[in-house]
């Protein structure tokens, strides 16, 4: 559990013991599960209820554009359309493609979401906001307990937030998902762990695709590396004029040798 959830749970257990008679020193297992659930619920509400000015600004625009498309299939095409709209609003928006490799029993998979880079409110040069228009469905479980359903009911379908906020949400929901699966007598698959869920949005190396280029960057340092023509308009490669009388190959081969080809 995250520190907020742990503090909330400790306080609620303390309040419960204080409110009971002296003969009841500790809550029963069912009472403890109830207290634990309430701590998770309050913690999640607190996380979701804390909205920065930047998050509110982006969410307002996203909801405006998605108003007539909420029932549409959340395909990459729809995300690209939304990115185009957000760019028209003046945001530095891109499609992020995260690839999860097979490891420790986790299946390989790909996931697309939207990223917006903007000036941070705390003085840092860049702030990364994650926009996911299919956020809630990522936490759905088969045969969820009522407690888990109460948690996912307050999770928004469209998420806009920073990495720290997303990490806290994942921590609370993955902990609750594990409890729900165990109460149903089901195995907890490795792709329901916090580490795997975080890799969908917070992987260390993410490929960002724009209309004109492809870049890769290190999420920890925000170091950006061009993998295509860069951020400007596409332009053909510079072809050096054929040198006459030097030999050593045809004009076509010399043109190809002067073209730089980058692969990611």
UniProtKB/TrEMBL annotation:
Pfam families: PDDEXK_6 (PF04720). It comes from the Eukaryota. InterPro entries: PDDEXK-like. This is Uncharacterized protein.
């Amino acid at each position: 559990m995250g520190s907020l959830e742990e503090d909330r749970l400790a306080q609620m257990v303390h309040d419960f013991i204080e409110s009971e008679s002296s003969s009841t020193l500790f809550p029963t297992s069912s009472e403890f599960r109830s207290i634990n659930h309430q701590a998770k619920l309050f913690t999640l509400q607190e996380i979701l209820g804390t909205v920065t000015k930047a998050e509110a600004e982006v969410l307002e625009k996203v909801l405006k554009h998605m108003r007539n498309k909420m029932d549409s299939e959340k395909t990459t095409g729809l995300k690209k359309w939304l990115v185009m709209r957000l760019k028209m609003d003046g945001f530095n928006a891109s499609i992020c493609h995260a690839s999860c490799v097979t490891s420790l029993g986790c299946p390989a998979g790909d996931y697309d979401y939207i990223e917006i880079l903007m000036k941070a409110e705390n003085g840092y040069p860049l702030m990364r906001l994650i926009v996911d228009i299919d956020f809630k469905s990522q936490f759905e479980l088969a045969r969820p307990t009522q407690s888990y359903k109460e948690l996912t009911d307050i999770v928004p379908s469209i998420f806009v937030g920073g990495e720290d906020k997303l990490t806290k949400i994942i921590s609370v929901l993955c902990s609750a998902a594990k409890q729900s699966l165990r109460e149903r007598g089901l195995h907890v698959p490795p792709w329901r762990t916090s580490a795997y869920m975080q890799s969908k949005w917070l992987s260390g190396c993410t490929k960002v695709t724009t209309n004109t280029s492809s870049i890769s960057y290190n999420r920890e340092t925000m170091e950006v590396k061009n993998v295509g023509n860069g951020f400007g308009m596409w332009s053909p490669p510079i072809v050096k004029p054929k040198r006459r009388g030097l030999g050593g190959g045809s004009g076509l081969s010399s043109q190809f040798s002067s073209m730089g080809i980058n692969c990611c």
